[in-house]
Fold this sequence. Notes:
This protein is of the alpha/beta class. Helix content is 45%, strand content 16%. It is built from 28 helices and 31 strands. The strands form 11 sheets. The protein has a 4-stranded antiparallel β-sheet. The protein has a 4-stranded mixed β-sheet with strand order 11-12-10-13, covered by helices on one side. Strands 29-28-31-30 form a 4-stranded mixed β-sheet. Helix 15 links the parallel strand 24 and strand 25. It is elongated and about 120 Å long. The structure holds zinc ion (2 copies). One zinc ion (ZN) binds next to loops. One zinc ion binds at residues 184, 186-187, 351, 353-354, 356.
Amino acid sequence: MTDAAGRRELPKTYNPQAVEGPTYRRWLEMGAFRADAGSGRPHFSIALPPPNVTGSLHIGHALDHTFQDYLARMHRMRGDEVLWLPGMDHAGIATQNVVERELARQGRTRFDLGREAFVERVWAWKASSGGMILGQMQRLGDSVDWSRERFTMDEGLSRAVREVFVSLYEQGLLYRGQRIINWCPRCLTALSDIEVEHEEVPGELAYLRYPFADGGGALVVATSRAETMLGDTGVAVHPDDPRYRHAIGRTLRLPLVEREIPVVADEAVDRELGTGAVKVTPAHDPGDYEIAQRQGLEAINVLTEEAVVNAAGGRFQGLDRYAARRAVKDALAEQGLLEKVTEAPHAVGHCYRCRTEVEPRLSLQWFVATGPLAAKAVEAVRSGETRFEPARYQRTFFAWMEGIRDWCVSRQLWWGHRIPAWYCPDGHVTVSRQEPAACAGCGSGELRQDEDVLDTWFSSGLWPFSTLGWPDRSEDLDAFYPTSVLVTGYDIIFFWVARMMMLGCHFQPPTPFRVVAIHGMVRDAQGKKMSKSFGNVIDPLELMDRYGTDALRFALIRGANPGGDVPLAEEWVSGARNFANKLWNLGRFVLSSVPEGTKPEDLPAGDQRGLADRWLLSRLERTRTAVTAAYDAYDPAEAARLLQAFAWSELADWAVELAKPRLAAGGDDARRAGATLAYALDVTLRLLHPVMPFVTEELCRALRDVDTITLGPWPAERTDDLDEGAEADMADLQEAIAAVRRFRAEHAVPPARRPRLAIAAGDRHRAELFRAEAESIRRLARLEAVEVGPAPAGAGPSAKVLAAGAELYLPLAGLLDLEAERARLERERDALDAEARRAATKLANADFVAKAPAAVVDRARARLAEVEAARAKVVERIRELAATTGG
Ligand SMILES: [Zn+2]
Ligand SMILES: [Zn+2]
């Protein structure tokens, strides 16, 4: 829409819905987000942490994506070649669960379909229902390069996965072994340590009595999982424990199963814990497994994959673990072998997907030997190839990398990258990039591929380079790797950052990313975690519907202090919407009030600028510098705060008000004022664009003849605009105006009442300043007239306000309630009296005067003199008032 003068006309109110969709589509049409590896510009790249294909945009994504988007947009505006690469994760367990639930509604399981048909069905689900989040990312304004979208199961990434698996195997960094792993009896899969969530539960400790086989006495062991005794193959005591020295080497008769088991001595036993004698269940406890390895004890598995007692559990076969726990205790009690049961709350691991209690289970799995990989990742951080922002998260990273155990990467699922290992009937293992024709060990053609798939994190751990064409040498890989920054919440450091660092530093050195920028979690206004059970979950899509995308983005970024949690309340989003509206109104004011044809680029030359122009441009340059520095320091919250304060207070409140009479007067000065305002608004909008891309783009397009600002330029440095003198003068002016306003507000002076103001300035410079700006003071403080000169005498009582090194006199007659004013002055006098008394008492104290440092005593004396002088003035004013009112 344009007006008669050819200017674009803006609707009265900002309507986000009408702007956002068309603007985003326009950006896509102009290819604004497409990266060109060969452009020769400096590269800036981010690999978007791929959301799950099952996912929908939640408030955590909204923060995470807005954070990345501000970086991408800022660098794009500054002229960098930006690649922000999007994609999705196949999310093994999560996706398989979705499709399994669908099948369950039809009364079927994945086993009814068989592997191939099931996997086909998951792909079909992905095609029809997966990836909902991609459209939501567009609504949020993510400036990602859609032409490079990837999926962790697409052909290229699958090839990268296989290459890494086989290479690690060839390098001896990947092996198959019997280990105690975390097992989810519901998902029927192994879980890595970090997929297990520990939670305190009200458990109990059962004390079981195991008689010696020779009939001489018994040992008592304590356990929270009594059913596991069915798989005990020994009892261990500490070699130096005098209580059990007699028992070492003897044989016990394991009750219920009637198996003979030895008493062994092992340093790992904690003498202080329980009875000091521990049952050893190698197949169901990781610590016991290690004891068993050292002591040569057998491992007997007594549970099925579903955590039901198996044939090894004798008469307890078929009971699930909880029923078996009760049955075993009952049976032992019957035989008098249950010594006691005490309450003992303890931490129990739960499956992070389904909350089922995890069962430690001995099984044959594939492991990545993390030691050498972790060492490389740690070295990359120590040497500065990668740095953490804020730096304190580096410690968290080191702590975890140092304690890391080998990574179990096989999962008993069907949806995922199938493990490229084949077995022949003789048990030889062939690991291969291509499907092998024959066994590498014996040449047998009878091969069976491993049934398991790889942990989802195995493929997402390759994300920064697999998405750029690796293992091929591609133009993108050369141009955009290492990526510039990885943005992620602190909750995911262990899950993902560590894996990417280990695999990236090893396969594509020196590092997958130069910076790891950590942000916190979005919480409610009270700082509480958002969860369905608290009922405090905020849906970002609803907020975007209600307040617009820019408002949501601004509220999130405004709260995102570096590395800290981000509180969010709906009212803050509505506050941010008000800010967007404020900007809109500013834009409308500038467009409608500046003389026709005035452009932001028509800034007046230095000597043509008035005080308000010089002040505004100086403040603008300071804001520009500080905002750019904050953005660069991964502190967008500070940038947002600075911009909001500048736009709202200095630009909208002061600059616009100061410019109004100049604009209304027309002529050259109006042109100067208009161009300065338009320029300041244009720069402010550009600086805000990374956080509020839609409203800023729409306004800038209206302000000047541009198609878009999303490709820049970023406002350039203009140190010549810095003007400390203008800032100091304007500060005095603002202080004087604010003092009159405050006086008016305190005394409830009606807006229509316009007193005269007399200013007695403290020095000549200020006197000239107030004289020159008298008209601005008059208008902005709602005054009849402003006179600058000596203190008025004999003009009746007036209020005196001290501000900006000047005395401001407002005649009181007709201005306010004189009785109330007298009461106010009397209160002021009493307060000064009290302070004077305190100061005098202190100075009368010989001890204080003698012992306190001379400077302190001098200060106290000076203060007392000041207070007394102030009191004298107040008393004088009370007397003046009394003279007027005749009281
Ligand atoms: Zn589970
Ligand atoms: Zn073979």
